[in-house]
Amino acid sequence: MKHPLRRSLALIALTASTWASAQTTLLNVSYDVSREFYKDINPAFAAHHKKTTGKDIKVDQSHAGSSAQARAVADGLEADVVTMNTTTDVDFLADKGVVAKDWAKRFPHNAAPTTSTMLFLVRQGNPKGIKDWDDLVKPGVQVVVVNPKTGGNGRMAYLAAWGQVRAKGGTDAQAAEFVGKLYKNVPVLARGGRDATGVFLQRNIGDVLVTFESEVVSVDKEFGAGKVDAIHPSASIVAENPVAIVERTVAKKGSAAEAKAYIDFLYSEEGQEIAARHNIRPRSAAVLKKYAHAFKPIKLFTVNEYFGSLAEAQKVHFNDGGQFDKLYTQGK
């Protein structure tokens, strides 16, 4: 006869395993420098989900250069949602049949709950006196950027550098000349945004890091406040942060409702507030107004203004043999 205590323990173990299997776990596959943002979003969403549905949920996160992440998902990484920093990475997944073809119409603002822009991080005290884009092409200034072929951070830095010439009334030829000079001052191309920060602050390479506005908060948290100064250039690009449900995974797991609830939470006032605290620009006008002190006025231009679309920019500038390859190899 089975001992009563053993029977009770077996029942407890069975109940625990049933509860564990009942708890949904989502995987959010995201870009490099959104790590800290989602570390705050995920428990806030879990608490919100519990309160509104009574169900437990856990969200795991994965981070690397956005294009590398998109390829990993295409190759079988079982993300429930992707939260990227360029639409081309989500379009790539749509072309593979992994996310919906009309993913950009599934959520407000072209399925981009937040935006960012590119600015400069310089060493404390700004020893090279860097104030605007023209300072990045001066002799003796070393610029750290992400490789635009591996990360959206790098593509946005490149397009920001090109577009700011156009925003001042320059031609594409003048923009190409400027960007060519800029990459001559790049000692090493980083794999992703967080790698670029490591190159700049841990390996101590370069005088200026071109990265997302949100990286200021991450650097202060990780390396201590005051290690860098943030320089807002006169003009920069609007970088949309697109999101999508990974249809292939949610169909297999039955997690479509939870994945949608997770993305909806990013648009909620609570989600928008968390974004603003991480220096990520919220779509909510009320939250943006509340954090106006954090988001300095910059002349912002969109990708569409000077490049048609990100897909068009990808073909012209970043595909093999494109404008970036030409300018980068000329510069070396």
Give a structural overview:
The protein is α/β, with parallel strands linked by helices. It has two domains: 4-115 and 241-290, D-Maltodextrin-Binding Protein, domain 2 (3-Layer(aba) Sandwich), CATH 3.40.190.10; 118-237 and 302-331, Periplasmic binding protein-like II (D-Maltodextrin-Binding Protein, domain 2, 3-Layer(aba) Sandwich), CATH 3.40.190. The chain is built from 16 helices and 14 strands. The strands form four sheets. The chain has a five-stranded mixed β-sheet with strand order 7-6-8-5-9. Strands 2-1-3-12 form a four-stranded mixed β-sheet. Strand 1 (24-31), helix 2 (35-53) and strand 2 (57-64) form a beta-alpha-beta unit. It is globular and about 60 Å long. Residues 13-21 have low confidence and may be disordered.
Would you summarize the structure shown here?
This protein is 49% helix and 17% strand. It has helices at residues 4-22, 35-53, 66-74, 87-95, 108-111, 152-167, 172-184, 193-201, 215-223, 247-253, 256-267, 269-277, 285-290, 303-307, 310-318, 323-331; strands at 24-31, 57-64, 81-83, 114-116, 118-123, 143-146, 189-190, 208-212, 228-231, 235-237, 239-241, 243-245, 281-282, 299-301. The longest helix has 19 residues, at 4-22.
